[in-house]
Amino acid sequence: MNRRRYVRRRRRSNILMGLSVAATLFGLGWLAMILGALLYEGFSGLDIPVFTQSTPPPGAVGGLLNAIIGSLMMVFFAVVIGTPIGLMAGTWLGEYGRHGKLGFVVRFLNDILLSVPSIVLGLFIYDVMVLTMGHFSAWAGGVALAAIVIPVVVRTTENMLLLIPNTLREAAAALGAGHSIIIRQITWRAARAGIITGLLLAVARISGETAPLLFTALNNQFFSLDPNGPMASLPVAIFQMAMSPYADWHRMAWAGAVLITLTVLILSITARTVESRSEL
Amino acid sequence: MVDLALKECATSKPATRYMPGKLGTDRLFRSVSLTSAIAVLVMFAGIMVALIYGAWPAITAFGFSFLWTEIWNPVTQRFGAVAPIYGTLVTSLIAMLIAVPVGIGTAIFLTEICPRPLRRPIGIAVELLAGIPSIIYGIWGLFILAPFLQTYVMPPVIDAFSYVPVLSDLFAGPPYGIGIFTAGLILAIMILPFITAISRDVFLTVPAVLKEAAYGLGATTWEVEYNVVLPYARGGVVGGIMLALGRALGETMAVTFVIGNAHRISASLFAPGTTISAAIANEFTEAVGALYAPSLVLLGLILFFVTVIVLGSAQYMLHRLEKRAGGRS
Question: Is the CB of residue B189 less than 8 Å from the CB of residue A34?
């Protein structure tokens, strides 16, 4: 009797554990198919003109140069604008506002901002910058991306500062260092690897973001370095090309998709290496 | 402790005398960092204010009836949010129905049965996949998944259910390939790594002694998972699922490619529809007329409120879990 019950329980356990293996295979299978298709389609479209020419009219030879440069520029703007604000806000949370009410509110809202739909951020910057300036611009695109960078940097900075042992700060304070010296020369240094990791992850995240750029930077068929005008970016170019009816634009969209994916993967792997090398 | 020491250092006279200028820097540094922290608050409030301001013409014109009107007509300038809200909810529901069991199953596999040498590589692969931009999922869905579903999956399903009462409406033709179901499936694939990674992290916090004790009592692997691990990890897993739901609700690019952008509600899951984010992405730059763009911004405002509520409760649950973990250690 008991033995039969035990066999039944074992069988039930094996079946359900088998299902979890099946779930893993199911999930990884989809993801493998996506990566496989991406590499296959993408590399067949990746050629020299992709890197040296701008968006062609359908049917002509062309490339993604304008979009690549545009993406690099706007990501750069976003990092330059977002990092200092995020770093300082994260420092305030980790060093000054750990327990207070304001700290709690900032932390809570920041964690929500981390996952607010990026298209909402696009609408926000459209209302704030595009409408007031009267035209689409790469500046607006950069600020929209910065709105994504800030919460990421705040979160990682605070997390890293919380890991720094208080004895380090006390030792510095005992030597007579002021609070700002302690933060800049002791805790920031100790947390450097983690902060850089956070920044890399933020860059990885914004380099594939499409939604916030759709109506801030818009798009541009031509090569442009003017941050005051509309500018192309890789994700928006992919969106436009994939939605078009032209086969050669589709090929270029795949090539762009591979470029973005490789960039993101390289950034995340670098971030992991930096993180694992740090002593914390 | 350190606060005390610092206060001491800030108030004592000698510090000022021997280190001129230091206190000024301290105060400046503090106020700069406080300003940045407040900038985060301002950004949050700014989003709300800017969206309300942008949507104001539509709010005054339609009022609450916006929420239960199905018409979406740029020519007559009549707009209602029912179709996009319906699409957003249904695609997210499909995504959660698929991704939650599969994600948790994968997490159980990774923490319990996976051979040890494989755990790290698979875990890292899952985390890397969680970072792949959504537009990649979108174009894969458009070029590969949608044609595949159109040719091989949708026709047999439509045929098979054509005489079953309810299901024949849910899976009615014609098979476009794109539509609500395809969008939900892509969302599921996209949030899957995310749910897996969070669940695995939470499962790893379950103390080994608890599991060992259950095994010692003769429990099978499944019984340990179901009676020990899952109850212990419930708060964290639910929090992670809510975070994933927040993502699914607001996801734009993975959905826009394959949803079909049709402002109507069809009983069939295979029919084209639209979601809030897809409607904004598709139509905002072409919105002309006094009420068209404000109506889209109003959709964005609704999406913002919904995601803030979902993400806020996720934070609350994860926070509570953190507190508990902190209290026990």
Answer: yes
Look up residue A183 and give its two tokens.
């933060």
Helix residue ranges per DSSP H, chain A: 2-45, 48-52, 65-91, 101-115, 118-125, 131-133, 138-163, 166-174, 179-181, 188-190, 192-206, 211-214, 234-243, 247-277
Nearest CB neighbour to B142, from listed A93, A180, A242: A242
Rounded distance between C-alpha atoms, residue A178 and residue A163, angstroms: 21
CA torsion, ordered B310, B315, B318, B323, to nearest 10 deg: -150
pTM of the model as a whole: 0.90
Angle (CA) A153 A155 A156, round 5°: 65
- Dmax over CA atoms of chain A, in Å, equals 82
Q: What is the pLDDT of residues B107-144, one digit of tens each?
A: 999 998 888 898 888 888 888 888 899 999 999 999 99
Residue written as tokens 């035209």? A135
For residue A12, list chain B residues with Cβ-Cβ distance below 8 A: 220, 222
Instruction: State yes or no: pLDDT of B327 exceeds 60.
Output: no
Residue A49 Cα, gap to closest chain B Cα (Å): 22
Kindly state whether B41 is in contact with chain A, defined as any CB-CB distance less than 8 angstroms. yes
ipTM of this predicted structure? 0.92
The pLDDT of residue B163? 84
- B246: which residues sit within 8 A by CB, 6+ positions away? A115, B307, B310, B311, B314
The distance in angstroms from the start CA to the end CA of chain A is: 55
Look at residue B16 in the predicted model and tell me its pLDDT. 43
Task: Report the gap between the CA of B138 and the closest CA in chain A (Å).
Answer: 9
Q: Mean pLDDT of all residues in chain A?
A: 91
Question: Would you call the peptide bond into B174 cis, given omega within 30 degrees of 0 as the criterion?
Answer: yes
